[in-house]
Write a structure and sequence with these properties.
single chain; alpha/beta; two-stranded antiparallel ribbon
Length: 217
């Protein structure tokens, strides 16, 4: 029987929720060139994958954060998954914005967190870790006690790992970059050169550029 991280990585690649294009890189909001792009909202269109994520996230929360009282999804990518997990666990759910709304009540948190409630965060993907840190601080300022975060896909950047470790925020992930690379290699989805390009990008994503294009300024 396949391990969860391998099984989910396979499914994410199959449905193009993760796309690999070393020869035609994507532009991230950070300004980085990237040979990989993940849009995990794509999983919502595939009931089998969607249900796998819901069930496994709920299981991991019960096993690791069994005293959680609120599920807090990090907007916007994790909202739908957070709602499904909260429903599965019969827990209240909120979602947390990275910046306030520019109208109305200008909320950062949509929903109700009471002071002292224990909160588990739901994130679709972990890259720099900035969103998780902002969300944790926002929940803490509202009086919530953040137990940890459950993530669908972890890019495994050292920057994120170090910052979340300093913040003492436990991370539980369903699958990750290295597992995805192993699956792509096993399934012969990319050439050896393309796999090497992905590893080079992963070691220095801020300065990576495809072969022949020089360095990113």
């Amino acid at each position: 029987m396949k391990k969860l991280d391998t099984l989910l990585a396979e499914k994410l690649l199959q449905i193009n929720a993760i796309k690999l294009q070393p020869d035609s890189p994507f532009s991230w909001a950070t300004g980085w060139n990237s040979p990989i792009y993940s849009d995990l909202r794509m999983t919502l269109s595939y009931p089998e994958v969607r249900n796998l994520i819901k069930v496994e996230m709920a299981r991991l929360i019960m096993e690791n954060f069994g005293n959680a009282e609120v599920v807090a999804a990090i907007a916007t990518g994790a909202i739908a998954h957070g709602a499904m997990v909260a429903d599965s666990l019969a827990l209240p759910m909120v979602y947390v914005r990275s910046t306030p709304k520019d109208h109305g009540l200008e909320n950062l948190i949509e929903g109700d967190i009471k002071p002292g409630q224990k909160v588990v965060l739901i994130e679709d993907q972990l890259s720099t870790g900035n969103n998780c840190m902002k969300c944790m601080n926002t929940v803490s300022e509202a009086g919530g006690i953040v137990l940890g975060v459950v993530v669908i896909f972890d890019y495994q950047f050292s920057q994120a790992s170090k910052s979340l470790k300093r913040a003492k925020l436990p991370i539980i992930t369903l699958t990750n970059f290295e597992t995805m690379i192993d699956v792509a290699d096993e399934k012969k989805l990319l050439s050896a050169a393309d796999l090497d390009a992905l590893q080079q990008w992963h070691s220095d994503p801020e300065n990576w550029a495809p072969a022949g294009f020089g360095n990113v300024d």
